[in-house]
Amino acid sequence: MLVSTLSEMQQWSDEVRRSGKTIGVIPTMGYLHDGHRSLIETAARECDLVVTTVFVNPLQFGAGEDFARYPRDLERDIQLAHRAGTHVVFAPSGDDMYPVGYATTVDVGPIGEKFEGAFRPGHFRGVATVVAKLFHLTKPHVAYFGQKDYQQTLVIARLIADLNFDIRLRVLPTVREPDGLAMSSRNVYLQPDDRRKASIIYRTLRAAEQSILDGQRSRQRINAVMYETLASAGDIRIDYAAAARAETLDEPEEFFSGDSVVLLVAVRIGSTRLIDNLLVRVP
Predict the structure, then answer these.
(1) Which CATH number characterizes residue 136's domain?
(2) What range does the domain containing 248 cover?
(3) Does the active-site annotation cover 36?
(4) Do 133 and 56 sit in the same domain of this protein?
């Protein structure tokens, strides 16, 4: 079932809730891949009905970013989503989501200001705004996101807590290609040579993980492992390669036993910007 109007989406959600059934939502920008499929399949197992949203959100793209060329194929998305267990694909128009005169945005504060927020100013304001709107329209009991966009999951958790959404957040593991590259709609931008080079990202995360497991506690030295590994691949532009506390994204000088550390990488390979992360528990 395809729903394209806001009123129809709200009406459907109200009827489902009145019937006592649960709704799971997977917010996406479309061009679905196996990472999305895993989210949909999990939602289909855990909820009575599943909504997959498809909306390329202009508010989260900055000047000079890839909004215009972001891959789009709604028919393909509908087929993949339904095969995976989606009951409703919600694909609103930009004019409906942001009509003339639209002015309200949602800012989640410091958690959205570093790393991706620093390199893409306003990005998380756009993410939080569109997700808040999608939550109001689809009215889910559970929302499903992938760990690949780790900082985004912290932003959504902050949004849910601060605005008192009665929604449970489920963050599922990153789905990867055989060589470890995190699945992403933007992977289609990669030329063959760049695609081969992109495998260095996961090798970098694993190298930093191993350094922690081997006893390294210095944040700067863990970061140096990532920079050195990335540099070994040649022509890669590094936006950041950083270790931080997983819960807060704080960057202490030293980590301690029992700390949960997130390793975060953002790089540009050719014309493509890719991000990835890995969670590590300090022994």
Answers:
(1) 3.40.50.620
(2) 190-281
(3) yes
(4) yes
Q: What is the pLDDT along the chain (283 residues), one digit of tens a residue?
A: 999 999 999 999 999 999 999 999 999 999 999 999 999 999 999 999 999 999 999 999 998 899 999 999 999 999 999 999 999 999 999 999 999 999 999 999 999 999 999 999 999 999 999 999 999 999 999 999 999 999 999 999 999 999 999 999 999 999 999 999 999 999 999 999 999 999 999 999 999 999 999 999 999 999 999 999 999 988 899 999 999 999 999 999 999 999 999 999 999 999 999 999 999 999 9
CATH code for the domain in which residue 243 is found: 3.30.1300.10
Q: What is the Cα–Cα distance from 252 to 259, expressed in whole angstroms?
A: 11
Closest to 179 (Cα-Cα) out of 137, 140, 129, 233: 233
Cα separation, 201 vs 247, in Å, equals 22
Q: Are residues 205 and 167 in the same domain?
A: no
Cα(208)–Cα(222) distance, integer angstroms: 6
Which residue is catalytic, options 36, 87, 123, 141?
36
